[in-house]
Amino acid sequence: MAIRRSSSSLVAALIVALAVASIASAEVLFEERFGDGWENRWVKSDWKKDENTAGDWNHTSGKWSGDPEDKGIQTSEDFRFYAISAEFPEFSNKDKTLVIQFSVKHEQKLDCGGGYIKLLSGEIDQKKFGGDIPYSIMFGPDICGYTTKKVHAIFSRDGKNHLIKKDVPCETDQLTHVYTFIVRPDCRYSILIDNKEKQTGSLYSDWDILPPKKIKDPDAKKPEDWDDKEYIPDPNDKKPEGYDDIPIEIPDPESQKPDDWDEQEDGEWTAPTMPNPEYKGPWEPKKIKNPNYKGKWKAPIIDNPNFKDDPYIYAYSNLRYVGIELWQVKSGTLFDNILVCDDPEYAKKLADETWGKLKDAEKAAFDEADKKKQDEEANNEESDGEDENEDESEDGDSKLDSEAEEEKDTHDEL
Ligand SMILES: *[C@@H]1O[C@H](CO)[C@@H](O)[C@H](O)[C@H]1NC(C)=O
């Protein structure tokens, strides 16, 4: 008995030890909650400064939040470019799980703009970080007009950006949401929003990172004697005798020479013509099934000589920076709780402890702010409900639309 008890408690102790070890083993490469001192960890880029289109960040919890003391960084000027980055100890995700996670809130009812972050490799001049600096991975929501409302997940390799082929819709309301991208060493991935899995699969099938494994043989040619006519004219069908003698038109049998027709003056009377009901068009032999039909010719599928399998398509050997680089028509996007680590459980816990803990209070604060705004608008309409106001807002909208179009163009270059 005594032996048994001690062995079972040993097992229990082992389980506890394993659980502790698995939590302790999470490697956190970067975690930013935007508490005091955040400005020492981040470098604001000079990108677009000389054109006066570089926007500034506001360290705030925004107009509504679950905790006014829990701040992030928010874009604060309309029609501006934003570029900011932070460095972390160089990391290779080869043979490891990579987790990228952050929260984002679009307070401005975003109609066109990004809410994504980038991981960059190697060494960059952070003061020059911007839209044209190559990145390794880009991840997060992107909204533009009615057509673009999706989560980007882009792997960049050898100067080419590979977008996810599956559609992953993003959140479009004005509340905080957590976006998580998990890339595993078996080349499988998951995309989560608010700790719920929205998409999962394989890097091989959901991106075109590698060239296709099999292709149609480009050198194959249809053999000369390949008969791909399914029907042929019946060689035994013969044109009936006299077929070509049938006239196309005949004199109208119904017509009669008018009574007052004067052959002296009007010339010889001829009946008007009409289509001949007997005439069936030029003769054609009837069609029969071709006994030599071989089916449609198809090039044989062969192994693609340009395909080189790469079990490490997910891996980047020197990840080193987190960057946010955006163009915003309307500002108000707030980032917080940025995490890069190797443990999905750790990320889940962080999301629960931040977004999860505050989301109900944030929703209540938003509803209150929304109600206040609506009351104010109703009051304004009562006091000066004139056409003038409407015209103004229409002009504003059309300006936004044209900017939105421009933004779409930039998006296509991703
Ligand atoms: C920063 O955000 C707060 C809260 O939304 C706002 O009151 C303040 O005006 C903002 N400051 C700037 C410079 O945009």
Automatic annotation (TrEMBL):
Amino acid composition bias (Acidic residues), ranges on this chain: 377-395
Comp. bias (Basic and acidic residues): 214-242, 366-376, 396-414
InterPro entries linked to this entry: Calret/calnex (IPR001580), Calret/calnex_CS (IPR018124), Calreticulin (IPR009169), Calreticulin/calnexin_P_dom_sf (IPR009033), ConA-like_dom_sf (IPR013320)
Binding site for an alpha-D-glucoside: 116, 118, 135, 142, 325
Gene Ontology MF terms in the entry: calcium ion binding; carbohydrate binding; unfolded protein binding
Keywords attached to this entry: Calcium, Chaperone, Disulfide bond, Endoplasmic reticulum, Lectin, Metal-binding, Repeat, Signal, Zinc
UniProt superkingdom: Eukaryota
Signal sequence extent: 1-26
Chain intervals for the UniProt region annotation (Disordered): 214-286, 366-414
An annotated GO BP: ERAD pathway
Compartments, as annotated in UniProt: Endoplasmic reticulum lumen
One annotated Gene Ontology cellular component of this protein: endoplasmic reticulum membrane
SUPFAM superfamilies in the record: Concanavalin A-like lectins/glucanases, P-domain of calnexin/calreticulin
Disulphide-bonded residues: 112-144
Signal recorded as keyword: yes
PANTHER family: CALRETICULIN (PTHR11073:SF2), CALRETICULIN AND CALNEXIN (PTHR11073)
Family membership noted in the UniProt record: Belongs to the calreticulin family.
Protein name as catalogued: Calreticulin
